[in-house]
């Protein structure tokens, strides 16, 4: 039964971590290298993350510099950024690509908040689904007489406690991200 708990808790923890990574890639008007994490550049036939091809640094609050180690990759990186959905036009001076993050409009902030709420709800659904699967496993164990009915009740309570804990964590990081988006 402990393996069921360990598996459920690990999966719930991974869901929260994945949500945090997803939130990091949401552009909030500030320069953040995480917005480039999903972008892949065709580098000698291999889709390669930008951070493996260039030094990325925050020059100012709203300016991100991308300095490729190989100057010949400047145009493919620029092309990949243009093709992505981050909505920022790169400027290229021949050695460095600069991304200037525009200030967010009120409408865009509200759109981002809706996206944050949707991602958070998807994560809550994933957590509850993990709980449901774990409870089904424990019920099968009880049917097979591997555990008692009392053990089943204790297990259900413990799984609900895990669920509550991780959903609170999701709510907390979603609220923080919403505040960050609305305060810029």
Can you put this structure into words, describing what you see?
- The chain is α+β, with helices and mostly antiparallel strands and 184 residues long.
- Helix content is 58%, strand content 15%.
- It contains 4 helices and 6 strands, in the order αββββαββαα.
- The strands form 2 sheets. The chain has a 4-stranded antiparallel sheet, with helices on one face. A two-stranded antiparallel sheet has the order 1-2.
Helix and strand topology:
Elements: H1 2-24, E1 40-43, E2 46-49, E3 54-60, E4 63-68, H2 74-83, E5 90-92, E6 97-100, H3 106-143, H4 149-183
Antiparallel strand pairs: 1-2, 3-4, 4-6, 5-6
Helix pairs in contact: 1-3, 1-4, 3-4
Short key terms for the protein model shown above:
alpha+beta; 184 residues; 6 strands; 4 helices
In short:
With 184 residues, this protein is α+β, with helices and mostly antiparallel strands. The chain has helices at 2-24, 74-83, 106-143, 149-183; strands at residues 40-43, 46-49, 54-60, 63-68, 90-92, 97-100.
Query: Which spans of ≥5 residues are poorly predicted at pLDDT below 50?
Result: none
Helical run tally: 4
Major sheet attributes: 4 strands, antiparallel
Q: Average pLDDT, to the nearest integer? A: 88
Helix amount? 55-70%
Main sheet strand line-up:
3-4-6-5
Shape: elongated
* Beta-strand share of residues: 15-25%
């Amino acid at each position: 039964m402990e393996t069921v708990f360990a598996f459920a808790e690990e999966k719930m923890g991974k869901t929260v971590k994945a949500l945090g990574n997803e939130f990091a890639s949401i552009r909030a008007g500030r320069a953040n290298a995480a917005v480039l994490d999903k972008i892949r550049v065709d580098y000698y036939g291999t889709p390669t993350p930008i951070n493996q091809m260039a030094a990325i640094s925050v020059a100012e609050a709203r300016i991100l510099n991308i300095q490729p180690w190989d100057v010949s990759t400047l145009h493919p990186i620029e092309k990949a950024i243009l093709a992505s959905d981050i909505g920022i036009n790169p400027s290229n001076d021949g050695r460095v690509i600069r991304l200037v993050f525009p200030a967010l409009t009120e409408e865009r902030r509200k759109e981002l908040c809706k996206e944050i709420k949707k991602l958070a709800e998807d994560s809550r659904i994933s957590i509850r689904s993990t709980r449901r699967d774990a409870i089904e496993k424990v019920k099968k164990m009880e049917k097979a007489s591997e555990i008692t009915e009392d053990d089943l009740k204790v297990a259900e309570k413990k799984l609900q406690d895990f669920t509550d804990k991780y959903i609170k964590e999701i709510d907390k990081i979603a609220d923080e991200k919403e505040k960050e988006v609305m305060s810029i």
